[in-house]
Amino acid sequence: MKIRQTKKLAVLLPTYNAAPYLKESIDSVLNQTFTDFDLFVYDDCSTDATEEIISSYKDSRIFYIKNEKNIGVTKTLNKGLDYLLPHYKYVARMDADDWCFSERFEKQLYFMDENPEVIVCGTQGYWLKDMQQNPSEGWTYPVNSSYIKYYLLFGATFGHSSVVLRSQKMIEYNLRYDETKLSCQDWELWSRISKVGIMANLSDFLMKYRILENSNHRSLDKNNKHLEYRSRIISGYWEYFGCPFSEKEIYAFYFEEKKQSKRIFMTNTAKLITAFNAVFYQSKSELSFQDQGYFSYMLARRILSYWKRSGVSRKNLFIWFFILNRIEFMSKVRLVKSIIK
In 3-state terms, what secondary structure has residue 202? Predict the structure, then answer.
């Protein structure tokens, strides 16, 4: 395959048996107000009508690449990045079942041009079962790089198919997806990028993410495996802040539904609070006052989540006293309000 001319942006769209949604996704890309891009559809050996759908387009910006065998999304993404990064200033991600608003690329590339230190730029988006819906508001990701750095301890922080990557920095730091990760490969990549550079999300809602019941991280039969991958990534990222947790501990603190004795709960909670206090103190010199408030609230809610899942009674006054006297990242009055909310 030979690129006919150098353009500013390449769009990397991997697909596998997503024919029912593919045209809608491609059309949203082709209808962008920013037009200086090429769209690369990497087909991981689909057995549906994917190739016929791509062939129906006569747009010279579309390039279709079909893998010789099914290699999975992570290797397919790296295959695309290895080819595209040297040829384009930016590479945008797009998924075959998602949809982007027409000003997405225009707004993201303007931001990237104005902020040359930024390696990754994402956007806000709506998570929908019905893509015809047009909500007036939605759940938001943090926008500031400093808060993104800490938010990654609890969530992937970007809508994966919303991101634009700066090619020069991706090459300079040899940044690719970890091919040993079958799930959460984006989260793992962001956690590495946060250690070497700046990342940001726009406040604009420029994406619609399709909720599919059989997707890799939503289907019930794959959920436990997905949580294991998440636990591994989070465990590794906590080490970066000097707070080592095993994968097993992270799984218990973040996800596990299991009744515990009061003694085990208090021992585990003490370790969790110690880490939360430490990381909050680290964050104070970096976060705005507003983001400090968001972060402390997130930490408190995480403790409440663990408490609920442990099966230990929330009416136990001794445990209330135990928790209130150890937490330093939030005032006691605000903490009580957060816990009982």
Answer: strand
- Domain membership of residue 3 (yes or no) is no
Domain of residue 173: give its range.
Answer: 9-210
State the pLDDT at residue 114.
98
Cα(315)–Cα(292) distance, integer angstroms: 29
Residue 128: helix, strand or coil by DSSP?
strand
Same domain, 301 and 261: yes
Q: Where are the beta strands (DSSP E) in the chain?
A: 9-15, 37-43, 62-66, 90-93, 99-100, 118-128, 164-166, 198-210
pLDDT per residue over 33-68, tens digit each? 999 999 999 999 999 999 999 999 999 999 999 999
Q: For the whole prediction, is pTM greater than 0.70?
A: yes
**Does 296 fall in a domain?**
yes
Angle between helices 289-310 and 332-340 (to 10 degrees): 50
Instruction: List Cβ neighbours of 255 (8 Å cut-off, separation of 6 or more).
Output: 227, 230, 231
pLDDT tens digits along 201-254: 999 999 999 998 766 555 556 788 899 999 999 999 999 999 999 999 999 999
- Report the domain count for the chain: 3
Distance in angstroms (rounded) separating the CA atoms of residues 122 and 313: 41
Can you tell me whether residue 85 is helix, strand or coil?
coil
